[in-house]
Amino acid sequence: MDDEREDPLPHLHRSKKMVEDKDRPGFFKDYHRAVRKAISNDQFNEFSKLKTNDDRIRFCFSLPAIHDIDIKPYFRGKSEKEALEKKEAGNKCFGRKNNLEALRLYSQAVVKAPVPSEESADPKKMTMYAICLANRSAALYHLREYHYCVKDIDEALEHHYPKELKYKLYKRKARLLSHMKQHVEARDAYRQALKWLDWAKMEREKRIEHQTDIQKWLKMYETGKVVKNWDIPECYIEHPPVIPELTGGRNERFLSASKKIDIHYDNNMGRYAVASEDIEPGDVLVTEQPFASVLNREEFGSHCQKCFKTTKAPIPCKKCSSVLFCSVECRQSSYFHTIECPILDLLVGSGMSINCFLALRLVTQKPVSYFLDMKEKLNEEDLKEITNNKEVYDPSDFMRLYNLVCHSQFRTAEDLFHRCVMIVFLIKALKKTKYFDGKGSSSGDKINDVELFIGSLLLRFLQIVQFNAHEVSEFYLMSPRSLDGSKNETLGAAIYPTLALFNHSCHSAQVRYFSGQQVITKAIRNIRKGEIVPENYGQSFPSKNKIQRKAELADRYWFECNCEACQNDWPMYKDMDTSTMRFKCHKCHGPLNVNTEQLLNPFIKCEKCGDQTNILSTLKNLQNTEQTFKGACKEMETYNLEKAEALLIENLKQLEACLYPPYRDYHLTQEAYMKVCLCQGNIRIKQPKTEE
């Protein structure tokens, strides 16, 4: 390995962070380095003078070294042998009534089993997938996961489940639907069970027994005497996170934001959010679906590619065994995976960053015809004019995504070249899929106008993602209904065109949490009408000092933070002095700096207005807030989150009425409130270990 001091291209490190995944090495690093070293200084100077993305992509495609890579479809396919092994292992666990382990093994079998299609030559030889689903439905039934059990039965029946066994599935489905009070559907399922019983291979006495049982249930339905008290226990009903209503109602212009939010523009700050009304802790400010999202590679085996939901009974891709979906509906609506499927493991193996995956997803989630239809609209727009006019800002509008900042004018030639090499690699990979569908060139080392246009979009998207993407997360609990050891974990990344307009402060005004991919933000402090409503880009003053925060923000987002916490160099949480407080003047609300340990006179003169404030009542109120906080903590310990949230909001309001931050108890209350909010979104509970 070369000595770091002798690296001939040390200025590439910044772009590497955005293009390459430092935690997942791959071949792209060497590919890029070889291309960069192969071009002369004159060639690179020529590249640096290019002004458009089209010209940059065309230039890179003309380099001989850029084609010294053999790109082929590469993905994890199906294996009936592996599926059979997992199914048989699952059968053994099911026989021992270890249903949880059986579910895990059956799910692995479902993912590995070849999925039959309409073109399957011999349906009799394509039953493994359906059999694995049917077996899994039995495990789900005993685990009382009725919703997933019915879904598995339906999927098995759709995919060549053996005719002689179909009556079993229909009987199981009918019984489940009776539990779920879907009586019409249950009756129809019993009718199907009776129909398919004729195909069953069994002795006459056994057949008559099944017929009698099914006919008994059908008669009960026909006479209205069906048992109606079979309710699914509450804990076994699927409850997705609730999407709260926006406080004050939906903004008529910015559809994902509350009426309490407005968006302004100036030449220095760009677009930013402002309070159009007073905002209080607990106010819901934004609820927004992403324009595009991508799951972390580490979550492929546990979460749905489409909606990011945890997959209790995963549905596989029909071609590969690399990804999962939570339902057939999510699989059917994932157009992007039909494109990415044959090259997915190639992309993962390249070591490209999640930013690159997200930029690619912005393209692959729509057919090439969609972008060709949009081509004439893709002119640079005046962001000030967009913000100041009364046009509706719809986050699903492609132009809102397209016009997010990318700062191309500030990029170095090295940065742009690094990204261009990545885009050439992605175009070459897309040419191995059906994405261009006859509109692309057949030659791997040539690029036509359609491919060039998509490459230009990819290059723009890769720059947009750097400044506008957000992490999508879930809250991880070590045990049910307990916050001990809980933590927030990243699931993936997404772009929210409205949330992207909010500027950063190291003293954030809101907390983000997620329902699937949908983001929800709530205020965690008071913001007066006319004040900026910031969010946080990952750099928070209680946990990092000013030098660290400013350096990381400048490196990733290219701005120097001048928020209140940075201007006044607020101490980190561990360094906050509890003896020094900033009280509020009773008249003008100006800050009163007081050392409570040396307090002799409770009347403090305000330097701003000259009036005196008696802080004794404020000190008494602070004692009350301590009791309120302790009460909230007790509610959190018992997982009574609704009461805890109400107490914490009350506490934040009481503290803000008399104190200015930074104040230790104030930020402790904010942290507790944010934890309660995270519990209202995506939650994953650590699974108990199963016995082999």
**Tertiary shape:** globular
**Structural class from helices and strands?**
alpha+beta
Please report the distance between the alpha carbons of the first and last residues.
Answer: 44 Å
What profile does the largest beta sheet have? 4 strands, mixed
User: In what range is the share of β-strand residues?
Assistant: 5-15%
Average pLDDT confidence is: 89
Which percent range fits the helix content?
40-55%
Task: List the defining traits of the structure above.
globular; four-stranded mixed β-sheet; 692 residues; three-stranded antiparallel β-sheet; alpha+beta; 11% strand; disordered N terminus
Write the layout of secondary structure elements.
Elements: H1 13-19, H2 28-38, H3 41-48, H4 53-61, H5 80-95, H6 99-112, H7 128-142, H8 146-158, H9 166-179, H10 183-196, H11 204-223, E1 261-266, E2 270-275, E3 284-288, E4 292-295, E5 315-316, E6 324-325, H12 328-332, H13 335-340, H14 344-350, H15 354-364, H16 368-374, H17 383-388, H18 398-402, H19 413-430, H20 449-468, E7 469-477, E8 487-495, E9 510-515, E10 518-523, H21 546-557, H22 564-567, E11 580-584, E12 591-595, E13 603-605, E14 612-614, H23 616-637, H24 641-658, E15 659-660, H25 664-678, E16 683-685
Parallel strand pairs: 7-16
Antiparallel strand pairs: 1-2, 3-10, 4-8, 5-6, 7-8, 9-10, 11-12, 11-15, 13-14
